[in-house]
Amino acid sequence: MELTTKEEAILSGQQGEANQIAMALLVDIGEFFEADKLIPVSSAHISGVSYLTGGDGLIDQLNLFVEKEAKVAIPSTLNPCGMDRNNWEDFYIDLEFATKQFEILKYFEKMDVTTTCSCTPYDFGHILTKGQHVAWAESSAVTFANSYFGARTNKEDSLSVLSAAIIGKTPNFGFHLTQNRVPNVNVNVEATIEDYSDYSILGEIVGNHFKSKSFEFGAIPQIEGIHNPRPQDLKSLGAAFASFGTQLYHIKNITPEQELLSDLKLDDEIIVTNEMVSETYARLQPQQEIDLTVIGCPNANFEEIREVANLVRSKKLKPGKEFWVFANSAQRAIAKSAGFVDTILEAGGKMISDTCPEVMPYDKKRFPIVLTNSVKAQHYIAAPSLNGIPTYLLPLKQCVELMFE
Fold first, then answer.
1. 191 lies in the same domain as 259
2. What tens digit of pLDDT does each residue of 184-205 get?
């Protein structure tokens, strides 16, 4: 991989050991993927923030960078941490976990990272443009950036994205290159897809169909049959896709990179029918009593919070039930000003910021089963490497009907 004179100087340690470590990692990644060079990126979104996922190893890693006086060179934000910083006790987080989590956030602050703690960076300032290069690590945000905005990022890991944030560059391979963004599978949607959860289910069906196929950069669907989706619908679709490793999708007449679409037959295809949607809902629906519902994976935007508020207005949470809505602090503040947060709280629901349903620890004795409206949450809450709690899915309206009276 060809380096500029300045990049060579960084690699040799002339700009400090932290920059040298970061540059060395980027060079190793670039050479492994046969990148020709490093390219500037305009922002970084950093994952690996929750103590649940990173543990003491994350603290040690961040401490190393801080001791070597690492600072980020570009606007850099954080993925969700493992708790609501302001109300962690209300969600049954113990003091030891909270102490460790605050320590992690302090390290990021010392590196000048903006501790926004949300999986939806596009909802609080990172508004992207077609062709813009960024370095993002949150899987659902990567898919949204690539697909909805037509921006360009690979799925960075927690260490590579921190290195990219410190240097302000990332290796030029994968989805940074136009030739790797061309769709390779067809998806023909004959089913009626309307609700937020319908889009999530669509991602589940398509992801399952192609998960055993071998593509260099994963399946890149070219989708027909979707009309007038809302941004949160495409967020839901992309989050479900991301659960299966898809980092980019295209929708005919909707997404920005229409010039990459073709009428030629692609490597594989699937026709999605109403029967397939119904069968998937039936497979994922709860079979027993559930006491906790979580909404906001990815974090809910203003419109989603409003939808919840309208559904729970004049209702009361059933005894013994809990209903949590996850939203970043910016979207929550907007919804608060419109009265929607108070409506949810008055009905007995809880609003939670800074974290997401996947990376916070649950009190498993209190909540042995979880309900959600998101395929991504359904996958990851149940993952043994995270909480390992059986998780089921229903559309938002049905979640409310089960939890409220």
1. yes
2. 999 999 999 999 999 999 999 9
- Among 258, 281, 304, residue at a domain's last position: 281
Q: How do beta strands 44-46 and 185-189 pair?
A: unpaired
Span 162-188, average pLDDT: 97
Q: Look up the domain containing 108 and give its range.
A: 5-178
| Whole-angstrom distance, CA of residue 160 vs CA of residue 348 | 41
- What pTM value is reported for the model? 0.95
Length of the chain: 405
Tell me the chain's radius of gyration from C-alpha atoms. 21
pLDDT at residue number 346: 98
Q: Assess whether 239 and 119 both reside in one domain.
A: no
Q: Do 62 and 104 lie in a common domain?
A: yes
Q: Verify that 292 and 323 share a domain, yes or no.
A: yes
Beta bridge partners of 39: 170
Q: Residue 326 belongs to what H/E stretch?
A: strand 322-326
| 368 and 261 in a common domain | no
Question: Distance between CA 23 and CA 25 in Å, rounded?
Answer: 5
CA dihedral (262, 263, 269, 272) positive or negative: positive
Name the nearest CA neighbour of 139 among 365, 372, 395, 358. Answer: 358
Torsion sign (Cα): 9, 10, 15, 16: negative
The answer to whether 290 touches 381, Cβ cutoff 8 Å, is: no
Q: What is the DSSP letter of 373?
A: S
In terms of domains, do 325 and 348 share one?
yes
